Amino acid sequence: MAPSPTPDRPGPNTAFRRMRGDLSPGEFSAAVRRAAREIGERVSCDARYIGRVESGEIRCPNYAYERVFKHMFPGYSLAELGFAPRDTVRGRRAREARRAAAAAGSGPEAYGFGAREEHTHSDEESDVLRRAFMTSGPAAALAATLPRGSASAAPRRVGGPEVRTVEEAVRQIRLLDDRHGADGLYERAGHWLRNAYSMLEEGAYSQPVADRLHSGSGELAISVGWLAHDSGRHEEARSYYAEALATARMAGDPALEAHAFCNTSFLARDADRPREAVRAAQAAQQAAARLGSSRLLSLLALREAGGWAGLGDRVACERALLRAQRLYGRGPADCDPEWMTFYGEAEMAGLEAQCWSRLGDYRRAAAHARRGVALQDAHFTRNIALYSAELAGDLAASGEPDEAANAGCRALELLGERVKSSRIQGMLDLAARALRPYRRRSAVAAFFNGYIAKHAL
């Protein structure tokens, strides 16, 4: 006879299972993503997430999922959907996690963050995510799984819960990067990656766990590489992407391989290695061809276009841009990778703007950058700052100093407390140089006042 559910061993969520009806988990997860888009939310829901909810593993959804579920099922409370009250789920676990984090040296003080900083943001969900990243969950759990003692000691058993901590670490990094940029996250994320690779090297696990652990560790390496990339550490980013690629090749994981090559291409473009950018994007497309995701292939075509723009090959760049648009038009699919939640029309417009800017067509670049700012979901604060900085530079180069200054001011407002990104700051530095001849204009003078004050902090 199966054991009865308890607070520590919850039973299946039969109420939520009834809400799914005759839909498969994949079909239902697609419906969740559609509902999220209807209310301006971004959730990375897939069949695995639905399975975790229905099994009772997820006892209470995060705030974004709560809003989506209440939109899908108006009039239903969380309890009526089979979920436990948030305070009963988080209170005990948060206390346990803080104790574990303190014992492992991974609490907020270990990272240079005190209690005051954790409560400076007015956005409730952003505050929850930041606290979770600093004090609880994956960081503490990963530390607890690491083998201790001498090298000859029996290895610690690694199973599903430990793998899920790695996978959740990747999600938390992406969410925080979307809102705050890379500069404040890089060092802490590297600690998580070292823990994950320690489990791979020293743990004992089954083959299914090994497959997920390789995939999760590779995705974590890409996330840390991206944080290095966005904070201006290009050589370190290159090393992390190479590490992820090696993991993908050893595990025979084409999805991870495509992702690693995708980011390698983007880095090569930013590091002024356009030929490498083209080759890496083409290698990514070869790996992704068997995955069935048109949206992924669309993004990879844009990566290739960026390389061609860097080489000054307008014809090849336009051909790749057209291919990206055609593939994007095929729509989303259940097989789209979870990490691609950022990729929508706004990102397409922003990446195309960068291509035209590199080709010297600044007016066309400004038109696409303007569209990227207008279309961007408010959740992606970092990207709003990035597109605004891109727009400022393109407008300055095309002889529109007042609008350029206004776009630059918008980017400056987001940089600092809310967004920390050396890459975006570098784009603003270029815009400032282009605007210097127009400093007597009132709008441009206002931009420089903010720009100088930001550098003085």
Please tally the β strands and state the result: 0
Portion of residues in beta strands equals under 5%
Structural class: mainly alpha
- Main beta sheet: none
Whole-number total of structural domains: 4
- Shape, please? globular
The stretches of 5 or more residues where confidence is low (pLDDT under 50) are 1-8, 90-154
List the helices and strands in order. HHHHHHHHHHHHHHHHHHHHH
The radius of gyration computed from the alpha-carbon positions, rounded to a whole number of angstroms, is: 23 Å
Q: What level of helicity do the residues show?
A: 55-70%
Please tell me the overall pLDDT.
Answer: 79
Number of helices: 21
Distance between the termini: 65 Å
Q: Can you offer a commentary on this structure?
A:
The protein contains 21 helices and no strands. The protein has 457 residues and is mainly alpha-helical. It folds into four domains: 1-84; 90-112 and 125-145 and 156-251; 253-333, Serine Threonine Protein Phosphatase 5, Tetratricopeptide repeat; 342-457, Serine Threonine Protein Phosphatase 5, Tetratricopeptide repeat (Alpha Horseshoe). The protein is globular and about 70 Å long. Residues 1-8 and 90-154 have low confidence and may be disordered.
